[in-house]
């Protein structure tokens, strides 16, 4: 049996290895993908629009295009209401020495810092063991690695999720009135900025939060209506420059959005969104391999290997790819079995109740996304449409760890081993 001191030493080693490899991989991936200027269409037009705002000395009031244009300098397509994405992009561009790669590097730093804030919150709220495991999982998470490496607008929504989930949890958890008020005020403005980076959040996270508060009306929403209303008002203020600009330009942008909506209605078959992406966020699946089916997945890991050593390495990587998905499904079933049978147990009742409410929000988010996507006829959507729910995807994982700590501590060692070996698998996958 491992003593407390030995366990702490193991966790310190796990955290240290996680941080070192996490930093190394980010710098390695960044250096490997230096391009001076963006090459893909989304990157090209976003960088072009950035320079247009700077050269014309205009304050950004609109975001990226709702659909990628045919040419990077096109101006005819509908754009996302609100200018936060380009405001943040311009700030990163200037801080980064007025270069695209400088902006990318600033984006990398800010994304990592927000992730560090999230992990610090995990440490303060759930303790050292959960912090160590989550650090090991997050440091090499394939979505987190990608988000820091690109200024692409969906990646900003992923970074914001590091703030949104802790604030929602603290709103639920806190009995201190002042802390609850502050959290209540912050929730909707954060979602407003997220929606200015990716329009899909109007049909997922925002309605989900509204429905969640309606469900909790008797519990505490009615008591905190003033702070929540203040948050909605602040959210409105973030759109005020956009509304003023639209009013002075005969609502040209809004008319383009309505035109785009009618085009989508004509082309798109009503179908549910790829909401299962929220489960993929905690796995080693990058959100693109499964599209080509099992054949492409097997070919990626087991095909075209030049030596016997490479074959063994990729078998190891593939094993953890499969294991990460199997474990994600197991944790989801395990956690929601406890949720629906009312057998959720952690180290204290307040924590259990708060996690129970977060797991309810997880379900509300999934249902709301399906309903509103289909009502709006948006189409299936892709994993990056749901990046704002990145940390929400880890809620069952957090509960699972907290429950094991409390009810079955002897199984923690297996989680430590998996986390460590998974770090090695991701490391090998990215450098070979």
Automatic annotation (TrEMBL):
Transmembrane segments: 9-29, 105-123, 128-146, 152-169, 181-196, 225-245, 311-336, 357-379, 385-404, 411-428
Keyword terms: Membrane, Transmembrane, Transmembrane helix
Domain of life: Bacteria
The protein's name: Glycosyltransferase RgtA/B/C/D-like domain-containing protein
Organism: Brachyspira aalborgi
Lineage: Bacteria, Pseudomonadati, Spirochaetota, Spirochaetia, Brachyspirales
């Amino acid at each position: 049996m491992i003593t407390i001191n030995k366990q702490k030493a193991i966790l310190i080693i796990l955290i240290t290895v996680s941080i070192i490899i996490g930093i190394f991989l980010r710098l390695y991936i960044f250096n490997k993908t230096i391009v001076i200027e963006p090459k893909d269409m989304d990157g090209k037009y976003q960088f072009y629009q950035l320079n247009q705002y700077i050269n014309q000395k205009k304050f950004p009031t609109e975001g990226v295009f709702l659909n990628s244009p045919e040419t990077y300098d096109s101006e005819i397509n509908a754009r996302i209401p609100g200018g936060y994405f380009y405001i943040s992009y311009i700030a990163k561009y200037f801080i980064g020495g007025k270069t695209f790669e400088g902006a990318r590097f600033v984006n990398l730093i800010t994304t990592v810092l927000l992730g560090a804030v999230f992990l610090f919150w995990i440490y303060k709220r759930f303790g050292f063991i959960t912090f160590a495991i989550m650090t090991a999982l997050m440091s090499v998470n394939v979505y987190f690695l990608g988000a820091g490496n690109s200024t692409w607008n969906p990646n900003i929504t992923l970074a914001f999720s590091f703030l949104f989930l802790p604030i929602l949890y603290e709103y639920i958890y806190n009995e201190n009135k002042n802390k609850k008020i502050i959290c209540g005020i912050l929730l909707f403005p954060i979602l407003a900025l997220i929606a200015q980076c990716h329009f899909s959040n109007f049909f997922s996270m925002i309605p989900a939060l509204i429905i969640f508060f309606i469900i909790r009306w008797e519990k505490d929403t009615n008591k905190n209506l003033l702070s929540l209303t203040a948050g909605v008002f602040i959210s409105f203020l973030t759109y005020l420059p956009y509304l003023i600009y639209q009013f002075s330009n005969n609502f040209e942008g809004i008319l383009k959005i309505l035109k785009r909506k009618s085009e989508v209605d004509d082309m798109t078959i009503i179908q549910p969104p790829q909401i299962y992406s929220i489960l993929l966020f905690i796995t080693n699946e990058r959100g693109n391999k499964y599209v080509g089916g099992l054949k492409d997945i097997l070919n990626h890991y087991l095909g075209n290997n030049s030596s016997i050593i490479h074959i063994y390495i990729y078998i190891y990587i593939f094993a953890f790819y499969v294991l990460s998905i199997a474990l994600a499904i197991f944790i989801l079933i395990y956690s929601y079995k406890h949720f629906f049978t009312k057998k959720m147990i952690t180290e204290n009742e307040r924590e259990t109740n708060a996690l129970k409410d977060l797991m309810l929000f997880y379900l509300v988010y999934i249902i709301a996304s399906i309903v509103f996507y289909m009502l709006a006829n948006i189409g299936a959507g892709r994993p990056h449409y749901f990046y704002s729910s990145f940390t929400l995807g880890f809620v069952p994982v957090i509960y699972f760890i907290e429950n094991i700590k409390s009810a079955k501590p002897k199984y923690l060692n297996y989680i430590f081993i998996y986390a460590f070996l998974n770090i090695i698998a991701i490391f090998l996958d990215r450098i070979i």
